[in-house]
Design goal:
Blueprint: E1 2-9, H1 13-24, E2 29-32, E3 49-51, H2 52-57, E4 67-76, E5 81-90, H3 93-106, E6 110-112, E7 117-123, E8 126-131, E9 135-143, H4 150-154, E10 165-174, H5 177-184, E11 188-193, E12 202-208, E13 212-220, H6 227-235, H7 238-244, E14 248-258, E15 266-267, E16 270-272, H8 288-307, H9 314-340, H10 344-354, H11 359-364
Parallel strand pairs: 1-2, 1-9, 2-6, 4-11, 9-16
Antiparallel strand pairs: 3-5, 4-5, 7-8, 8-9, 10-13, 10-14, 11-12, 12-13, 15-16
Length: 368
């Protein structure tokens, strides 16, 4: 049995940042990841769009950016288009996530990849974690293994409500960069909306990379009747069909995204971060920065409570810090999401406001 102060399950953005901070703080730290993290990482079904501020914050090498973007084009299926200016990046999540994991390893964290968690059980005040390759003992566990977290399922944590889950379908379509530039623009990403004729609660997207277009679709899971047929409705739109003409499918993958908090974020030295905790923007589905911040806050909270001899208050402090940083806004966005997708008028009003305002500003000022 290998013993660690903190075992992080999942090598995504939340898990890797949690492991990095834990190692920096002097904790013996291990990341358990079910997939093989080769040099190029492992594929993650995700558009990979992010604000340029995040690229700068972590000194992400620009040569690893798949495409620099300058605007977000918001299309309604009736033909109306709204344009939101702002610099950002589109990345391959495999490359981005591997970069973050390497940051953690450089600080001294250990990586156990190609090891799927089979079981986790309390062992006194610690946890015994059994994987396909070994057994580990952890004083604390950071669950960063996504919305379907096996860690939290095995521990009997409550699951998400069905109206807080979005089913997405992602396709990676290979196409030469010249045609991508001509069809979608060199520096634009595209979102598609339409409650009645496309997606009742959600949106679809075309995100250009260097020589691929990420094609995505996401709808509230309990409103889906036939996901493949509904996805096909999107790719059959004339503008989308023209954009993808002659491209070759490289990946087809469904994926779940939470758009509401898990009913529980902490219990008995186990702490949920990122998608595992439902810490995602309910309107845009943006999760990368919140995963990273929650991973950092999780470990900082553990350290703070140990220093103050208040271990039993980790959960309380974690939630309070998340609330102060961004969680209250995300909860308000979850309420606003229902109003936005109530009807086409409300949706178009939001898209119009989104052109010139941040979504948090729209919600906080009560503009919708």
């Amino acid at each position: 049995m290998s013993e660690f102060d903190i075992v992080v399950v999942g090598a995504g953005p939340g898990g890797s940042i949690a492991a990095k901070v834990a190692a920096e703080e002097g904790y013996t730290t291990c990341i358990i990841e079910k997939e093989n993290l080769r040099d190029e990482g492992r594929y993650k079904a995700c558009g990979g769009a992010m604000a340029w501020e995040l690229v700068e914050e972590i000194d992400y090498p620009e040569e690893k950016v798949a495409r620099v973007i300058e605007s977000l084009e918001l299309h309604h299926v009736d033909g109306e288009t709204y344009s939101k200016e702002g610099k950002g990046a589109v990345v391959w999540r495999s490359v981005f996530d591997k970069f973050l994991t390497d940051m953690a390893l450089n600080e001294g964290a250990k990586l156990k990849d190609k090891e799927a968690l089979l079981d986790i059980e309390q062992n006194g005040t610690n946890y015994k974690i059994t994987t396909t390759q070994g057994v580990y003992d952890a004083n604390y566990v950071v669950a960063a293994d996504g919305v379907t977290s096996r860690t939290l399922k095995r521990l009997g944590w409550p699951d998400f409500h069905s109206d807080d889950l979005i089913l997405t379908i992602t396709k990676e379509m290979k196409l030469n960069s010249v045609e991508i530039d001509e069809r979608l623009g060199k520096d634009k990403v595209h979102l598609y909306f339409g409650i009645e004729n496309l997606i009742p609660v959600g949106y679809a997207w075309l995100f250009p990379k260097a020589d691929h277009i990420t094609v995505g679709w996401g709808n509230q899971i309990n409103l889906i009747k036939n996901s493949r047929e509904e996805f096909q409705k999107f790719v059959s739109l004339s503008t989308v069909e023209k954009s993808l003409r002659g491209s070759e499918e490289a990946v087809f993958k469904p994926h779940l995204i939470p758009v509401g908090l898990r009913p529980q974020l902490y219990k008995e030295k186990v702490i949920a971060v990122g998608d595992a905790g439902g810490i995602v923007d309910p309107i845009s589905g943006k999760g990368i920065p919140y995963a990273m911040m929650s991973g950092q806050i999780a470990v900082e909270t553990i350290k703070k409570c140990e220093n103050k001899d208040r271990i039993k208050r980790i959960g309380e402090y974690y939630k309070k810090t998340l609330d102060r940083k961004f969680l209250k806004i995300l909860e308000l966005k979850r309420q606003a999401r229902d109003r936005i997708f109530n009807d086409e008028k409300s949706l178009k009003n939001f898209l119009s406001l989104w052109e010139t305002h941040r979504s948090s500003e729209i919600v906080m000022k009560g503009l919708i």
